[in-house]
């Protein structure tokens, strides 16, 4: 930060602090830059600047100037608000100057105005006056300090002349040309114990002024004056003190003289600030102003005279200490169940450190306590050892020897925790084989829910996992007539909640009904039978046949048994079918293992219309394949749930099936399905051994 910005920052901060009781809620804005910068009343030594004030909230204006090829602008004046002109009266004739102006307030600085380029007028000889008050003082055996008053403002410089020894008949000679506006000069390289007389005049392009009055002095005796000190260093200690140190190169001094002058443009106007004893090499210059520059020089003294001065040393006092600016942009992020990370913006350059304050938000109100003191320039902190599921509120203050800053913004973070337990679990049997669960989601941080169930007094086991925010579940995997107990648990990455309440439910038994066939007909295709057109119906006797083979893709079809269950329609239409089996009673086993196919009818039929070559149509895609039993099984049950469900929901009609024998092509084409192998209506009319469908439905 450059000195001007640093100073303006402090000024802006103090002005902001002083106006902090403004409760209008508006955020201060930097002012609009001035415009229309012009120069009027230009002479060889002065001009007047004028500009337009484009804002109403500035607190003042700053004027900056640059001469000719100088590399940087220098601030030359600060003005109050609403001022729109400034007279610059410290100029050189026939010189180029550039000016710019900016406004400022507590929020900051405006942009610069446009840069104004001005040329001063030539000086005239009529206004060139002779310097006055010329003095000469011996500083050592080889140096004389000269000083005078500049009475002109249009000189381009001065001519200094000197005469050595007595004035008569001595002649003055030009010793050097001195720049304009200079009022002091050190004449060096002189002879010891010698008298020198001086005169000076101002010059410009028009000519010369009159000479000043004469000033004479003699240099010291070189044999007795002390040796000059060296290595003068000036170091600011604080806003009011500068420490000086130097090397003592003499062994016959009686002491040292220290001189100081304000630091600035031009030749320093030194004043004696301290006379010290012999062999001393340090001094603290105190009682100074903050942010003020000083230039120093020192010399040794004894009874015979003075040494030469040291080289100049410069230093600027520190800014007056202030309370640091408050941190801002505080953020808090929970990293785990026991750790929160804080980060903030350090807005101060003078803090000794930071104090982090916090409290746990348990409903008792803010009660900040200091949890950490950190060093300067730190802007992060990890708060550890925390409890899960707790909201912590934070703020940060900067501090130094003057005091604490205002607190930063507050920031809060809640450490993660396992979710809360679900509430109000209820279980309802929605059918003899289905249970519906509902519960209240009492958490906002769950990843999902575990559903557990037990039967009677058995142990709970997990039966399902559902997503977050789900509040119901249907359990389809239950047995009719059983009593189940359910519970639900929420979970997340941290852990599991406690369980909900336990919810029991008892399922009603499923309705089970059996249906016997209406018709039982054997249909076959025979090349040797003499009764090729015989219709086999309910009045027929049990028969045995030799079957010829019909090709069916790569398999062979040997005979059909058609079974019709017309009474099913009124009982199961629109009902939910849980399970259905075709029950057949086996009388004898086939010669070889084979595959039976059970197909649903594709059309209606009547037993009076069936012949050997007029079998009922059936759907190949509506098929259930089963393998013949290897031992006598009474009864022999075939699962045809899929077929019966399609009857119940109205997808299929006709309520009948065909039982076919499918013989792989690798087996010989022989009759494997003997009708006498199954009991039929003809054999056991009215008996429960006739073909039946057993259906469980709701």
What does this structure look like?
With 698 residues, the chain is mainly beta. The chain folds into 6 domains: 117 residues, Immunoglobulin-like (Sandwich), CATH 2.60.40.10; 94 residues, Immunoglobulins (Immunoglobulin-like, Sandwich), CATH 2.60.40; 87 residues, Immunoglobulins (Immunoglobulin-like, Sandwich), CATH 2.60.40.10; 87 residues, Immunoglobulin-like (Sandwich), CATH 2.60.40; 86 residues, Immunoglobulin-like (Sandwich), CATH 2.60.40; 185 residues, Sandwich (Jelly Rolls). Helix content is 5%, strand content 45%. It contains 4 helices and 49 strands. The strands form 12 sheets. Strands 41, 42, 43, 45, 46 and 48 form a 6-stranded antiparallel β-sheet that branches. Strands 3, 4, 6, 7 and 8 form a 5-stranded antiparallel β-sheet that branches. A hairpin with a 6-residue loop joins strand 3 and strand 4. 29% of the residues are buried. The N terminus is likely disordered.
């Amino acid at each position: 930060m450059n000195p001007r910005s640093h100073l303006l920052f402090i000024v802006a901060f103090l002005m902001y602090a002083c106006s902090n009781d403004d409760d209008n809620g508006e955020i201060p804005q930097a002012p609009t830059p001035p415009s229309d910068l012009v120069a009027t009343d230009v002479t060889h030594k002065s001009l007047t600047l004028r500009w337009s004030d484009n804002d109403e909230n500035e607190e003042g204006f700053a004027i900056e100037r640059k001469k000719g090829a100088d590399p940087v602008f220098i601030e030359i004046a600060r003005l109050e608000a609403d001022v729109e002109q400034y007279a610059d009266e410290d100029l050189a004739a026939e010189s180029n100057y550039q000016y710019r102006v900016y406004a400022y307030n507590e929020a900051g600085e405006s942009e610069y105005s446009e840069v104004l380029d001005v040329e001063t007028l030539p000086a005239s000889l009529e206004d060139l006056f002779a310097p006055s008050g010329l003095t000469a003082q011996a500083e050592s055996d080889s140096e004389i300090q000269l000083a005078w008053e500049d009475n002109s403002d249009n000189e381009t410089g001065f001519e200094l002349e000197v005469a050595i020894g007595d004035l008569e008949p001595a002649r003055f000679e030009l010793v050097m040309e001195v720049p304009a506006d200079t009022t002091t000069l050190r004449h060096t390289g002189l002879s010891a114990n010698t008298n020198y007389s001086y005169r000076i005049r101002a010059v410009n392009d028009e000519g010369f002024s009159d000479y000043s009055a004469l000033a004479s002095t003699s240099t010291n005796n070189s044999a007795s004056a002390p040796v000059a000190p060296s290595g003068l260093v000036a170091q600011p200690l604080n806003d009011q003190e500068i420490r000086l140190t130097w090397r003592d190169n003499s062994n016959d001094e009686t002491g040292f003289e220290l001189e100081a002058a304000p630091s600035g443009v031009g030749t320093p106007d030194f004043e004696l600030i301290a006379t010290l004893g012999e062999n001393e090499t340090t001094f603290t210059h105190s009682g100074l102003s903050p942010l003020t520059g000083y230039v120093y020089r020192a010399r040794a003294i004894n009874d015979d005279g003075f040494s030469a001065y040291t080289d100049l040393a410069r230093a600027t006092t520190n800014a007056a200490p202030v309370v640091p600016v408050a941190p801002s942009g505080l953020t808090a992020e929970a990293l785990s169940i026991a750790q929160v990370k804080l980060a903030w913006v350090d807005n101060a350059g003078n803090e000794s450190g930071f104090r982090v304050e916090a409290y746990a938000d348990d409903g008792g109100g803010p009660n900040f306590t200091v949890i950490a003191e950190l060093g300067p320039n730190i802007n992060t902190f990890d708060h550890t050892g925390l409890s899960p599921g707790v909201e912590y509120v934070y703020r940060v203050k900067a501090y130094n020897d003057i005091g604490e800053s205002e607190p930063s913004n507050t920031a809060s973070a809640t450490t993660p925790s396992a979710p809360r337990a679900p509430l109000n679990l209820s279980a309802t049997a929605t059918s003899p084989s289905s249970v519906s669960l509902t519960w209240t989601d009492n958490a906002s941080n769950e990843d999902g829910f575990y559903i557990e169930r037990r039967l009677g007094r058995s142990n709970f086991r997990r039966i399902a996992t559902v997503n977050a925010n789900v509040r119901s579940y249907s359990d389809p995997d239950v047995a009719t007539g059983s009593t189940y107990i359910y519970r639900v648990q929420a979970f997340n990455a941290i852990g599991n909640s406690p369980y909900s309440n336990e919810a029991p439910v008892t399922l009603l038994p499923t309705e089970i009904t059996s249906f016997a066939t209406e018709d039982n007909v054997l249909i076959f295709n025979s090349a040797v039978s003499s009764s090729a057109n015989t219709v086999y119906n309910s009045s027929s006797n049990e028969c045995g046949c030799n079957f010829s083979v019909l090709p069916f893709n790569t398999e062979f079809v040997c005979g059909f048994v058609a079974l019709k269950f017309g009474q099913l329609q009124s009982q199961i239409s629109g009902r939910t079918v849980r399970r259905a089996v075709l029950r057949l009673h086996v009388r004898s086993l086939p010669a070889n293992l084979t595959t039976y196919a059970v197909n649903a009818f594709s059309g209606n039929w009547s037993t009076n219309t069936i012949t050997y070559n007029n079998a009922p149509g059936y759907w190949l895609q509506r098929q259930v394949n089963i393998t013949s039993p290897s031992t006598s099984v009474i009864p022999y049950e075939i699962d045809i749930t899929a077929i019966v469900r399609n009857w119940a929901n109205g997808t299929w009609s006709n309520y009948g099936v065909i039982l076919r024998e499918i013989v792989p092509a690798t087996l010989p084409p022989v009759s494997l399905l003997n009708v006498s192998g199954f009991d039929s209506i003809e054999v056991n009319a009215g008996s429960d051994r006739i073909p039946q469908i057993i259906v469980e439905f709701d």
